[in-house]
Structures are given as C-alpha cells and as structure tokens.
C-alpha cells in the first residue's frame, strides 16, 4: 500500500511495529525523544529498562517470526536459554513443580533486546529514524476527522497517512486528543502499588547453576514482599526486590541486602549474599494496570492507532506487556492486509486490539484488585477466586502447572484449566523446591 507512516516511540513496541509496517508502507519514520546508539544502553525514555524483562513463549515466537534468528543472536551475546519449568517460583501457596514444559525461557537485559531489534529494523531502507525529536501533538484536517501527521519541536509537522502511537506507559496521547478538541477515552485502573528495586551482580559463569532464574511472587491480600533473580548477558545477575501495596525495598546496600535476606526464596539471597555488586540499586514504581479504552472512543479519528503500553499498561510481575505489544503489531499488519480503506483499518484495529487485552487484563486485574479496599466487581471476584484456587493446587499438580503456564504464556485457552481446577486433586505429593543450587 502507498502509505507514509509515522511511529511515535522508538522503544520496543515502536521498533516491532515499524518492522511490521516496513513490509506494507512506502515510508516508515520512527520518531524518538532519545538518540540511541548502536550498542545496548539505558535510555531516559525507558526508566524500566534497569529492571527484569522476559518474553512469554508467544511473544518469543512472534519476535522470531519477525526477526529470524533473533534467539540465536541473543544466545550468542550471552543471554541464557532454558525450559521455563526449571524456573523455581515461590507462591505463598508453595513452590512450583520443577518439570519440563516445552516453554522456552530466555533472559536478557532490556537494552540488549532493543539493540538487537533496532539494528535489524534500521537496516530496512523503508525505515527512517528520527532521534532526539519530541512530538508535541497531533496534526489533523480542518474537520478534525483525520490525523494527518504529528507536530514536533525540531522538524515542524511530519505528514503521514498513518500515525502509530507507541510511547509507552506515560503516553501523552490523551492530552493531545484533548488539545485537538476530541473526547478523552474511558480509563480503567487497578493499582496494586507495586515497586521494583533492582541491582546488578557479577555472575560466576564457570559455576554449574541448575537454575537460570527464580521468583518469589507477591500476592494479595497478604504477601506484599517478593523478589526475583535472573541471569543475563555479560556474566551478570539482575536482582529485583518487589514491594506491593505501597511497600518498597530500600536502595542503600545494607537495606537492600537485608530485604533480600528476609525473603523465603533462598535463590535471591544466595546471589545478594555472595556475589559482587556491580553498581547501585535503582527504584521504579507506578506499575499499576491502566487500560485506555480507545476501542470505545467515538468518534475515532482516521489515520491514528495506538498500541502497547500507551494503550494498556499491565503489572509487569505477570510478564504480559512485551508479548501483548508484539501481538498488536502483528494484528495491525493483518488488518492493513485485509482492506485498502485506511479509516476502516484504524477503527477495526483499535477494536481488535482491545480483544488482545481481555485475558492479560483479567489475570492481572483480578489478582491486583485484592490490594484495593472495598467491594470487588463480581466477574473479577470470581476470576480472582479461581486463580487463587489454581495457585493452591499448582504445587501438588505438575500437569495443572503446565496448563497454567500455557495459559499464562498465551499459547492456550483458559478453558483448559477449568476442569482440573474445579476437581479435587486425585493425589497429593510432598511439596518440592526451596533448596539452593
């Protein structure tokens, strides 16, 4: 199609959607406030990049299809790979079984993933990066029915047939719509008041660790402390201490170490108690679930779509954000393939993008509502009750755990859980896990 596209946001979501659009548009301009270099590095516009990231199985599959050989490239740059079932995870209900699942877990830093993707995206001659450029608003036609581009501080108005907003959790799109005289979207919020405090440590790559990552999850209403440790590239551990319901771990070295030592997960303490720190601890908060219902906004201007965290930001503890953004990028490509009428593409995509969020939102919001005082809506209460029941069963039921992971990784329908979740367990076995490697 003869389409000029502008992607606002050059982070993960913006790069993935640029890859999708490059095969369908004559020009794709990626506008980014930062000026990222060719090597991995933290950017001011992605403050969450200092904390753990993971791709669920469905997300990894999509990225491999869009960027063939990406997993091997990450592996070659030191990102470990193993089966997700080797990931010892501690819920308040007990340790998950250590069983093979067929689901790949690859752990890496956010800067490494973005650098690998960015290099491939910018190799496409259809893609033009515009770094160091701040977008100040939308450009619309005289009737305010169509977005015709974006206004920038450095380059004036960039004209486009299609504008994709991929500016992340702190997107300015609601303000831009208001400035253009368009209505604001309905916003759904469920905030578990989660915070991350993360620190890097030196990893002994010659040691034979039987685990690549471990987690102690927070869970409403009673478990407001948790932590995670993941092996990443360059021989490093990334340790993240979690606090929910307003609790936060200290950033000073002694306080950080004491918080880690107080956790029931020994893997976290094994690293913080013995490995060499590689820098200070960094805190990141404001991690609630927030869904801007652009799919319900009327009228919806032609030529505009929004995806990723700018559409819906999810509690990162459950790991859905990057996978959902990749799903939405692919969905936009398929929607473009399905019609030549661009206004119809934008409205149709926005409705369909809302559907990709149904399951991730239900899982995250149903659990996080437990931190909020007051009455929980009946559908969320029922979903939360089911999830809590599943978590109680999982330590003693490896088959149920595999099915639960398939659903969490967005590779299976939640219907696969209903039967075993509602039946009494036929057998019980002693809970395993909880010993250090």
From TrEMBL:
Pfam families linked to this entry: FAD_binding_3
Keywords of this entry: Monooxygenase, Oxidoreductase
GO molecular function, one term: monooxygenase activity
InterPro entries xref list: FAD-bd, FAD/NAD-bd_sf
Taxonomy, superkingdom: Bacteria
Domain FAD-binding: 4-336
UniProt name for this protein: FAD-dependent monooxygenase
Organism of derivation: Streptomyces morookaense
